[in-house]
Design brief:
Number of helices of chain A: 2
Strand order of the largest sheet of chain B: 2-1-4-5
Oligomer: heterodimer
Number of strands of chain B: 9
Largest interface: A-B, 40 and 33 residues
Number of helices of chain B: 10
Strand content of chain A: over 45%
Radius of gyration of chain A: 23 Å
Structural class of chain B: alpha/beta
Helix content of chain B: 40-55%
Low-confidence stretches of chain A: 1-30
Strand order of the largest sheet of chain A: 1-3-4-5-6-7-8-9-10-11-12-13-14-15-16-17
Number of domains of chain B: 2
CATH topology of the largest domain in chain B: Rossmann fold
CATH class of the domain at 105-346 in chain A: Mainly Beta
CATH architecture of the domain at 105-346 in chain A: Beta Barrel
């Protein structure tokens, strides 16, 4: 009886889907496909890191590719999906909807999975950075390669400020999984950011921000972890299309490190920072330096350091970029590691606005 | 008692002054040219600003939160359209201003005419053609005949945002049309000796300007729009400049000097560096831009 009751429902659902697919829908004015962009990369490298399987051997591989679909859902809400991956398959990196118009008091809402707005660098996709890899300090303090990326719901507000001063306050309720990765169950966390932007005359812009996030890092003990960060970015628009960017960010993390053999659950304070300068000569060339240092996870008495030199060349215009980087990594108590990376980044699809 | 009355009178005067100042209609424009024309049409009733600067490439404007906060306070936004100022959408969106009236100055709407668009590509458009605008060349403000089209859009938007001063805006628009018609005669007279002259431009920004003053564009420094020149393309251009006896090369200041200087050395062509937009956003600055360009080019005919 239950089977008979279930079968027609499935059948009708299937038939409805089939009819929807086969019968052409009337074309509605103004309805169009979403904007689709694709970004790919080829990576070459050489490292003397003995811990690497490819130590002292040149490498060549297809890096992570990204597909972006975005469109207005209606006059007030926008949606976006970002798939990333490579030869082994793709995963949903981001998928969210944002209410961008129609709310009072300068409010905006966003919900879904997205790279969280903690600090300045976390929310930026690596291909949009002036160098190949995100800073090691940010990866160490903000949950690894994929960054701080979770399902969340955000309210943000553009505060009423005089003149060119833009002040944005945002608060997110987050799934909290990043804090207790690999543990059974979830416990919600929170994130807040206050960003202030100023124009520096006709030829410069400055953004400063402070961020804080919290979540439970051990579900059994209910221990709470905290992240606090401060960031600064300044950009100077020089002659022609040349630009100079200075950016720095400091992160402080308070977490707990479980030691299953000793049965302890020790609290750990760690901090780190990076700073870089990037000079863009007209629209085709860029070059810069990055320095960073951070305390090692599980061994806060050890401070690791890294120094990078990077350069980029847009072959014709911004859709095809060649990037070269040299990194000198100094793990405390270990041998220095030298790495040279080369990247060909290519993108297709609509040219989106350049965000600060 | 007398003192308190004086204080209250002074306060009332201050408030009235503040109210009259704040009563101005705030207008944002993507380009200085649109802002300047809006300043003319709006007169004392408006306060305008432009997002793009005259000496910066209008195709690539960085979306700064400070622009968003400025746009959050405006009643009207004038877009240039034709996919030139796509960055304006991110600024308007980021401003979270639900009451903003967005006017695209390129299309026919609300009693204002549209632009007769040049270089509209036929068929499929893709990146193999360079950074081609699918709706056509967007640099239309560089033809003085399109000034009145922009003025009509400014009048239409301002009248919607501030119906109480609609008559004033219409009168100012009429005054603008008359003034530009008169000035256009002077500009044409100045450039009359150049009629039919072969010119080269760096980017395709000057198609409307060339059409307006009957200059003949015979080549571009860019092999495709937005694509920097190759050595082979420059050599072909040298041959073309010599064959066509081109005398004038117009270049925007945000492009590098080296290629135009190479062409100048090889062919003797004279390089003129003009901003594609007017330098100021005051009521007469749109006219001043043509004054500067026509005065600069006037001597090139001989």
């Amino acid at each position: 009886m239950r089977f008979h009751a279930f079968f027609p429902m499935q059948f009708y659902a299937f038939m409805t889907a089939l009819m929807t697919a086969l019968v052409p829908l009337p074309v509605k004015a103004g309805v169009a496909n979403p904007d689709i962009s694709a970004i790919g990369q080829v990576l070459g490298g050489y490292t003397d890191d003995v811990a690497s399987a490819d130590a002292e051997e040149p490498t060549l591989k297809l890096g992570e590719a990204e597909f972006v679909f975005d469109a207005y859902l209606n006059p007030f809400i926008k949606g976006a999906f970002i798939l990333s991956g490579g030869e082994d398959g793709f995963a949903l990196e981001e998928g969210y909807a944002s209410v961008v118009k129609g709310l009072p008091w300068g409010l905006a809402l966003k919900a879904g999975k997205y790279r969280l707005g903690f600090g300045k660098i976390n929310s930026i996709h690596p291909h949009a950075l002036p160098f190949i890899e995100p800073p090691r300090s940010a990866r160490s303090l903000l949950f690894g390669e994929e960054g701080f990326n979770e399902t969340a719901a955000q309210v943000s507000c553009l505060l009423p400020t005089p003149g060119d001063w833009a002040s944005t306050l945002s608060g997110d309720v987050i799934e909290g999984k990043a804090f207790h990765e690999g543990q059974e169950g979830t416990r919600l966390g929170g994130l807040g950011r206050w960003a202030n932007d100023f124009l520096l005359g006709e030829r410069g812009a400055l953004e400063t921000g402070v961020s804080g996030a919290t979540g439970v890092d051990n579900l059994d003990r209910g221990s709470r972890a905290w992240l606090v960060g401060a960031d600064l970015k300044a950009k100077f628009y020089l002659e022609g299309s040349s630009q100079l960017t200075l950016q720095a960010e400091g992160i402080f993390a308070y977490t707990h490190i479980p030691d299953t053999t000793a049965g302890t659950h020790a609290a750990e304070d760690r901090q780190g920072f990076y700073g870089f300068c990037d000079y863009r000569y007209h629209t085709q060339w860029n070059g810069g330096l990055l320095y960073e240092q951070w305390q090692r996870e599980g061994a806060t008495n050890m401070t690791d350091r890294a120094f990078r030199v990077f350069a980029g060349y847009a072959v014709l215009e911004e859709s095809t970029l060649l990037r070269l980087a040299y990194e000198h990594f100094l793990p405390e108590g270990g041998d220095p590691v030298n790495t040279v990376s080369l990247q060909l980044l290519f993108s297709m699809g609509p040219h989106k606005a350049h965000q600060f | 008692m007398k003192n308190s009355r004086t204080v209250s009178l002074a306060l009332t005067a201050c408030l009235a002054l503040a109210a009259s100042a704040s009563a101005k209609i705030k207008v944002a424009a993507s380009l200085p040219d649109l802002a300047s024309i809006a300043a003319y049409v709006g007169g004392d009733e408006v306060e305008v600003f432009s997002i793009a600067k005259a000496n910066a490439n209008p195709h690539f404007v960085e979306v700064l939160p400070s622009y968003m906060i400025k746009v959050s306070r405006v009643a009207v936004y004038l877009k240039s359209g034709l996919a030139l100022d796509q960055w304006a959408d991110a600024i308007i969106e980021g401003s979270r201003n639900s009451n903003i009236l967005v006017e695209d100055c390129s299309i026919e709407a609300g009693g204002a005419p549209g632009i007769s668009v040049l270089d509209k590509p036929a068929g499929k458009v893709d990146a193999s053609m360079g950074d081609v605008h699918p709706q056509g060349n967007p640099h239309y403000w560089l033809d003085p005949a399109n000034g009145p089209v922009i003025a009509a859009h400014a009048r239409a938007a301002l009248s919607k945002a501030d119906p109480a001063h609609a008559t004033l805006y219409a009168a100012n628009e009429k005054r603008f049309d008359e003034e530009i018609a008169k000035r256009n005669q002077d500009w044409h007279a100045k450039l009359a000796p150049l009629k039919g002259t072969a010119v080269v431009t760096y980017h395709s920004s000057w198609a409307y300007f060339a059409k307006a003053f009957e200059l003949r564009i015979v080549g571009y420094v860019e092999p495709f729009p937005g694509i920097p020149p190759t050595a082979k393309h420059l050599q072909e251009l040298v041959d073309k400049i010599k064959a066509e006896k081109a005398k004038v090369l117009i270049q925007e200041p945000y492009y590098g000097d080296s290629d135009p200087k190479f062409l100048e050395r090889q062919t003797g062509i004279k390089v003129f560096r003009f901003t594609p937009s007017c330098e100021g956003i005051g009521a007469g600055d749109y006219f001043k831009h043509f004054d500067i360009m026509t005065a600069g080019l006037a001597g090139a005919g001989g």
